[in-house]
Amino acid sequence: MTSHEPDDSARESEPSDTRPGTTxxxxxxxxxxxxxxxxxxxxxxxxxxxxxDWRASRRGETxxxxxxxxxRRPRNVPRSVPYMAxxxxxxxxxxxxxxxxxxxxxxxxxxxxxxVVPRRARGLREAMAWxxxxxxxxxxxxxxxxxxSRRDVRxxxxxxxxxxxxxxxxxxxxxxxxxxxxxxxxTLRPPPLTPLLRLAAFAAIPVLAFGAIAYxxxxxxxxxxxxxxxxxxxxxxxxSPVGETNIAEGVVGATSVSETIVAVAxxxxxxxxxxxxxxxxxELEFTNTGAADVRLPVGTAVEDPDEFTFTTDEAVTVPAGExxxxxxxxxxxGTVGNVEASTLRFMxxxxxxxxxxxxxxxxGGADIEVPAAAADDRVRVSGIAEDVLxxxxxxxxxxxxxxxxxxxxxxxxxxxxxxxxxxxxxxxxTFLMEYTAIVSAxxxxxxxxxxxxxxxxxxxxxxxxxxxxxxxxxxxxDPTFDGSRLVATLTATGLATELFDPTTLxxxxxxxxxxxxxxxxxxxxELDVEPLIRVHPTWLPAVRMPQRExxxxxxxxxxEDLAAEIAGLPDDEEDTEGxxxxxx
Length: 584
Known about the structure:
This protein is of the alpha+beta class. It is built from 12 helices and 28 strands. The protein has helices at 8-13, 28-59, 98-106, 129-140, 151-159, 193-216, 375-400, 446-459, 502-507, 514-525, 559-567, 571-583, and strands at residues 2-4, 87-91, 112-117, 143-148, 163-165, 177-181, 184-188, 219-224, 229-240, 251-253, 255-268, 271-278, 281-288, 294-296, 301-303, 309-312, 316-318, 323-330, 354-357, 366-372, 404-406, 412-420, 430-445, 465-467, 473-482, 485-498, 532-536, 552-556.
């Protein structure tokens, strides 16, 4: 919507009803409707004019006056510029300004000029250049249309009274509604179609993208617990840690596991030794040859040449130049404390003027016989070490093997080192020997056991029956060695159900609600437990089953596994709960 001062002289010389594409206050919607109704007539007139011109050219007659029509574009002109007969085109250069543009317009022979202003024409970005160009065009009676890619240039041209647009489409004459408002008039133009088409395209893109996502992205998982019949069979097979599972040949593949352990073997000691029982006592004589008294506290230590220590029983003060006597007790009990006379002569931390001795020998020290380690005890421990290490190794392997069966009959022990924790002759009631060993055993993983159970059950399935996935279980009994081969009896149990084609079922569930799909599936298969259907992703509105059959997967489970899926519990968590309940 624009507002500008109309030319009064032009308004007086041209009646309002003769101006094309204008109305005097009529409805703009009515004007657009009238223009649409005129389109067939205009097309008919154009066709008739074309036929008349063609016939005149055939007869050599003068053609009709040139009409505004498109012509071939010169090579040096951008493709965005339309060229029509009777119109001149001026393309501004980098160095052009208002004066040079006026000079180039002056040389044009046509009264209608298309002025193309590229971005490189910096001289025409000034607002003062356009009033000069507009004034010259009005003076010469020229019609100047401006095509400019810059918004400021277009605005300067519009302010100067020239028609300006970014593309040639914006320069076309369109029906307008002009409303006189005193000395001014209000001009209303219909909205351009290009933004509306762009808006429609942008609105259609997310709709189409959402439709494509809704068709290709959704997927559904159907968990079914079909009614099954128990199936049990047993077979005697060879458990091989290096072979592959082949039920036809009677071989089940297993694995070998090794672990380094540290264990202690013990036995009761058979030897004896003497140890101190009662400490010896003695009377000490202290002589002070100094000029000052010396105070001896309780527990004053006195030693012999072999550093055997006695401590005083009481505190005593030895006057200067005198002698004092006091009792002492050996620190270490036993007969070793019965030292001879005049052997306790050493003290630490006292002046050299203080001398000490024992006038008589110490007495009262006694020993007692106690159990001690003997050489035979080491031999006895070596005899039981293998069994001890085997049991300890089996427990260690069972701790690290959480999803498998350890065959205890296959456990082997290789001792790396041994170290006695009690020396020979050392008093002790138990002889201890620490061993470092490598323990190896044959282990049947649960996954391998399940695959073997499935192969065993499939080999004995009746015709028209199928094994429910995940229902196969196996128990290994009576493992023995046949020469160097480990042989065991495998008892496989599972659930069998009647065969049916999942493809046919998927075709009946496309595009329906999950509840409807579950009801159809339950009624068709005669299920005892309602199936679980999960549609992904869940953020799609109005969640329905996928439109494509290949996006629907059917999973067969046991009733216990289906209940765990509905509750959202993993398989290992469910098994743990069962074990805890059994232990209680």
